[in-house]
Amino acid sequence: MTDLDASALALIDNCSQASLALLERNLTSHGILAAARTEAAVARRYTRIFGRDAAICVMAMCGSGVPALEQGAVASLEALAAQQAANGQIPKYVDPEGRDADFWYLGCIDATLWWLIAVDHVRRHGQVGPSRWTEEVARALGWLLAQEHQHFRLLQQNEASDWADIMPRSGYVLYTNALWYEVKRRFALDHAEATHYHFNHLFNPFQRDLPEYHRARLLQHYARRGRRDPGLYLSFVNLAVVGDEGDVFGNVLAMQCELADSAMARRIVDTIDRAHAGEPWPVRVVLHPLPRQHPLWRAYMGRHRQNIVHQYHNGGIWPFVGGFWVMALAKLGEHGMAWAELAKLARANALDDWRFTEWFHGRTLAPMGMAGQSWNAATFLLARRALLNGEGAW
Asked: What is the pTM of this model?
């Protein structure tokens, strides 16, 4: 139960209703759009069915009890499957009318991962059979397995090729491999234990336990050299460079996907909490933004001045990630803290007459990005569901 006052509980209820209404408004006959149809959203192609956005929304729409949303969950997965590449990759986004499929500059690895997670979710909680999308699932898994290192059992990727598409993470990426382990568990893939083992040794190289594989020991040494234990998993590990900027989303997913044991999960929560990443609204997605003089800085991060410090993926506040933060707290049993964060998340979504703002500046708190963001609504609903009974939240 929660100790929130009546006004906070009422705000949470109002946000739940507003979230369902937004998802219905953003729904087309072919699936859920990433954002409300505004002039800016059309110009930036947010009025598309995005692999990752739609999959996250599918999990909220499925089990909502709203017939249009239940049907929209299946339609969204169908629209993405219809434009699946011959090699098995799910597109970054598709046009609602089926005329366009985009696969991003260097590929979009997480669209396929999220699509698979959503397929499993709908099979378990929706009104489709367990064999729905069998061929498409097999092709998608085959595409991912082709990118798995044959000893580490972790996925490898180019930089800027997942949700944080203006960040220089590459090689073995925390966020991506948390999702990969989740896919392995849901679809009973081989070598899940090896994925779990190397995930924890590669992204947390500060532990005393050394892996047996000599290349794993060397990567662990390179990652640890000259650094202090940040209390978090590293955001990525490559041959000569690692990410210690404090990737909140990747760490939260490591908790949600049960890769972090209880001790590591507590450390993650304490580190994020001490950094005040949830103030005034959850949650800043990077604890230590990369300035222009940082060795990891890339010229593309400064394009349109979008990803400079405290902005966008480089330290902005993303309410949809705040929903995953609440879910991870609930999984850890921190229900009091989780309810308080959910109330703050409702306040963020309610700003500017329920704008459901994509992201906020990490310092000035200026609203940025698109209005009417579907996955803000979806993860709020999932977080509330996780706190109420847990059924169908993940």
From this structure: 0.98
